[in-house]
Design a protein that fits this description.
The protein is of the alpha+beta class. The chain has 2 domains: about 150 residues, no CATH class; about 130 residues, no CATH class. About 25% of the residues lie in helices and about 30% in strands.
Amino acid sequence: MATVQEDIADIAEAVRDYGITPVREPILEEELPGGRRKTEERVSWEERGPVIEVSSGNSASIRYFVDGIQRTRLIGTKYSLRYDVLVPVHLSIVGAIIIEHEAETYKPVVEPKIEVHVLVPSKKILDENFLKKCGHLVEETQKKGKPGWEILNLRRKAYIKSSDLRQKLEIELTEQLLKRKSFDDGLYLLIDGTIYPHNAVVRPDVIGLIKRHYESYLNPKDETQVFSMGLHKRSAIFSFKRRGGLLSRPAKIFSCYAKIRHEPADPLFGLIRLEFFEDTAKNVDLLCTAIFDLTDPLYMASREWDTKVYPIHICERYLDSELPSMNVIGAILGW
C-alpha cells in the first residue's frame, strides 16, 4: 500500500504532466472565512430556559474520543472544453483517530487512518493518462452543495466533499471500536464535531462537541442571553431534525450550549455546543460536568484552545504527527 507521501508525489507528477495549471500559492479551503447562517431546520425548546445552572456533583465517564482532520488545498486549475469553465483541482488529506482516556493515560484504540484524494467536479475533465496514474485517488464533487459551475461554488463543493471523506473515516473507526468494546457500563464516546445520524452512532452513549458556531439555532434574544452566560452554565436543551447525509439517515438531534471557559469581553470565548440523542438528554448535566473537568490544562498552545477539551487536543497532536508537514508537501508539489 502506498504511503501518504507516495500518493502526493503521484498526484504532483500527474498535475505537472497532464494539463493542469498549478497554482503559485496553494489555498487551504478550511482557512477561508465563513459567515454565520440561520439553520434551515425547525428548532424546538425541550426545557425552560434559556440559561440553566449545571448541577454540580457527579459526572459521566467519557472514555473514548473521536477526532478527524481534513486539509483541502487548491493545487491547480484546468480549463474544461466540455463545460467551458475553469475548474479547480484540490488535494484532500483526511484522517481520523479514536483515543481512550483511562487512569490519566491516553492511547489509540483503533489504528488511525489517513487518506489522500484528488477532488474535481467530474472525472470527465481529466486527461485519461491522469486517470490511469491517479484514478484510484480521484473523487467527484459536483453532486455536493448547490448546483452550478462557478469556480467559488466548485471550491465550496470540494470542501464539503473533503468533510464527507473525513466523516466516512470517523464512522469506519467508530464501527471498529463498537465491535471490539462494550459500552454497557455507562461509558461515553465523544466526537469532535456534529453527530451524524448513522446507525453506528445513533446511540445514547455517543455525543458530539462543536467548537465553531457557523450555524444559528436560537432567536436573537435567546442567543444573546446564552452566549453571555457565565462559566459552567448551559443553555436549555433544544432539538431539531438533521437531514441524512453521507451514510446517514434523518434523525432528531438534541443539543445545548455550555461555557467551559469564560471571558466577559468575548461571548464566543469558551462557548461549545453539545449534540446527543433523546435518551441522553436526562444525563446532560452529568456530561457537562465531565466536559468541564476535561479542560485542564487551562491553556493549550493550539488554535481554538478556549473551546477545546484536552483529550481532543491529544487527538489533534497525534494526527498531526502522522501527517507530512506543509514544508514536505510543498517540496513534493514544487511550491
